[in-house]
Hints:
The complex is a heterodimer of chains A (245) and B (215).
Chain A: H1 7-51, H2 69-79, E1 80-87, E2 90-93, H3 102-105, E3 115-122, E4 125-135, E5 140-147, E6 153-160, H4 174-177, E7 186-187, E8 190-191, E9 195-197, E10 212-214, H5 220-243
Parallel strand pairs in A: 9-10
Antiparallel strand pairs in A: 1-2, 1-3, 3-4, 4-5, 5-6, 7-8
Chain B: H1 6-13, H2 29-34, H3 39-62, H4 72-94, H5 96-110, H6 113-121, H7 128-158, H8 190-207
Amino acid sequence: xxxxxxxxxxxxxxxxxxxxxxxxxxxxxxxxxxxxxxxxxxxxxxxxxxxxxxxxxxxxxxxxxxxxxxxxxxxxxxxxxxxxxxxxxxxxxxxxxxxxxxxxxxxxxxxxxxxxxxxxxxxxxxxxxxxxxxxxxxxxxxxxxxxxxxxxxxxxxxxxxxxxxxxxxxxxxxxxxxxxxxxxxxxxxxxxxxxxxxxxxxxxxxxxxxxxxxxxxxxxxxxxxxxxxxxxxxxxxxxxxxxxx
Amino acid sequence: xxxxxxxxxxxxxxxxxxxxxxxxxxxxxxxxxxxxxxxxxxxxxxxxxxxxxxxxxxxxxxxxxxxxxxxxxxxxxxxxxxxxxxxxxxxxxxxxxxxxxxxxxxxxxxxxxxxxxxxxxxxxxxxxxxxxxxxxxxxxxxxxxxxxxxxxxxxxxxxxxxxxxxxxxxxxxxxxxxxxxxxxxxxxxxxxxxxxxxxxxxxxxxxxxxxxxxx
Lengths: 245, 215
């Protein structure tokens, strides 16, 4: 073992190791980048369509079933009629809306943020799909909520980076997301958002005009994160969606 | 198991019971507590660790004569981290939905002390084949405990197994819930995993008295 104990050997070994490992990882990341980017694009299209009710759920309950990746591109083109960016209180039509990086935007001050809006049409009805980005317990949470002209939620999809499996991670389960459907984000005409409420004593979510959905047990902070994310994002869109009628 | 000699069999079988990394060596407890609220997460984590342990042990064993002893821990860390990142990137490119399931675990695999423990205690001093078997054996031993904890926590905490409502619907009050049964939300919290680990240790030591330490 003597030859491997010397300082020179140790330094040379460490240097070679770092270069080799760095090279492997950099090469791999470069080589796989196009495939990963494409997967992320498909996922975003699936999420947006899911929120406006274009999915393969059918009559099943339980699992989330997206439009399969091989069809999502054409379905997205079929259903999404216009994309807009809301910035500094002005809504402009923009083809760049899909490419807006919500994570980067969330770090900017509110007045400079680019906030995308996807307008879709299904069965003659218009859907306004709003992407959002916020904080859960451990890391980022994000989602897509679709509203109709009357600002009633038509669908929601949430996702997270690192919430606890079995607890906060359940925000991406149907039984949580489907509760939002039918909730109004206004209360007596003024903006109220939707609160993930503990103890609202309505586990089946039969009351749709209380601006509340039932919280997940053991996931208080993640639920509060969802409430905060919805409140801070949706408000800015309200006057614009009213005007788009 | 005709393929393996007696000694090799021991490498696989010992960690499953009398030399279990979780219940006997009490390693890898952190991830056992964090991700076992669902059976599915436990299984996915076990498979991920199985891969990283099997390959990692072989890589360390192959390099065991050229690793400088002063920086061997850092070298081990680099090997684990590299393997995990490679797996993560490949999954993201070719099995995107699976990679999303795994996202939480990637960091947990790197810090899993069982992996570093086996590198240090076994792979540095043994040949390729034996190191591979040792890695697989320990990962299986870890997985078995994870699956047992996940089974009880999901069943008693959520009334489901792998997402299926095996005890009926708690909101519609069908199945067991119709006679007043309630889910124990406590089971979903990490401390209950520790209590389940404790119960497993208790059962194991009462069945095999040789495992009880002298005071």
